[in-house]
Backbone:
């Protein structure tokens, strides 16, 4: 009876051990980013042409940060809003509140000038347009135009999901993943979804981050307002960080003590 019980207990421990191994392991091929196949000449590609994606056009309800620099100090703030010198101006809320809203007709209300139509222009075109207007008032000025609320939303299997403010003109999918603290071990890296607003609706794109050819995708660089969703792997309830290792080890230890007890009695 003792030997039969010991055999059953040992078998149960082995079954529990192999269950833990096979349910908590994810193949490396599912985890590694930017994988590629070996070429016919046994070499790997090392150069890729990054597409910048569609050039963003200013739309209604966008908020633009516009700064005019003048060679004459006294006229420096001629075209600027009456802003506070407080450091709060340089946080997200301050920049947003002191930006220029593009109204539904596509105009911004620019100081001393009035309405300026900017909808449908990219940033360089808007900068050139505003500079040409400012030059009628102040010669030799320079103008900066930026998006005041570049937001990207990260959802799903990432460490820190949420909405992130971006202050770079070029921001790619891996930058976004980094901002969100990387993907979790249960993330489905070969089917990441990007939702992008377009005129009259939205477009959905599925990306394989395991494939190095993503570097040549039109969606490699993100645009303001993009939503990135990382779905979970199917059929993986226990994966690395989520697996109850302490409980398993405690169970195995208790089982070994029981085996030793019945063998010595």
Residues:
């Amino acid at each position: 009876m003792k030997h039969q019980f010991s055999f059953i207990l040992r078998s149960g421990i082995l079954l529990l051990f192999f269950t833990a191994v096979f349910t908590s392991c994810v193949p490396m091929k599912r985890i590694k980013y930017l994988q590629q196949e070996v070429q016919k000449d046994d070499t790997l590609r090392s150069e890729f042409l990054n597409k910048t994606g569609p050039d963003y056009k200013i739309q209604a309800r966008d908020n633009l940060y516009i700064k005019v620099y003048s060679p004459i100090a006294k006229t420096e703030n001629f075209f600027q809003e009456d802003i506070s010198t407080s450091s709060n101006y340089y946080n997200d809320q301050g920049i947003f509140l002191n930006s220029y809203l593009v109204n539904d007709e596509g105009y911004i209300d620019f100081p001393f000038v009035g309405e300026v139509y900017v909808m449908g222009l990219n940033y360089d075109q808007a900068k050139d347009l505003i500079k040409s207007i400012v030059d009628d008032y102040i010669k030799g000025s320079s103008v900066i135009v930026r998006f005041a609320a570049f937001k990207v939303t990260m959802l799903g299997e990432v460490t820190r999901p949420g909405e992130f403010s971006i202050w770079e003109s070029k921001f790619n999918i891996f930058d976004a993943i980094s901002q969100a603290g990387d993907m979790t071990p249960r993330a489905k890296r070969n089917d990441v979804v990007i939702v992008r607003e377009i005129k009259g609706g939205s477009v959905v794109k599925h990306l394989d981050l395991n494939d190095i050819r993503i570097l040549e995708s039109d969606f490699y660089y993100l645009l303001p307002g993009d939503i990135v969703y990382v779905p979970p792997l199917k059929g993986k309830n226990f994966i690395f960080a989520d697996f109850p290792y302490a409980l398993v080890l405690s169970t195995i230890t208790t089982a070994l003590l029981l085996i030793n007890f019945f063998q010595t009695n």
User: Anything to note?
Assistant: Strands lie at 63-69, 100-101, 107-110, 114-117, 142-147, 150-156, 162-166, 192-198, 201-207, 227-230.
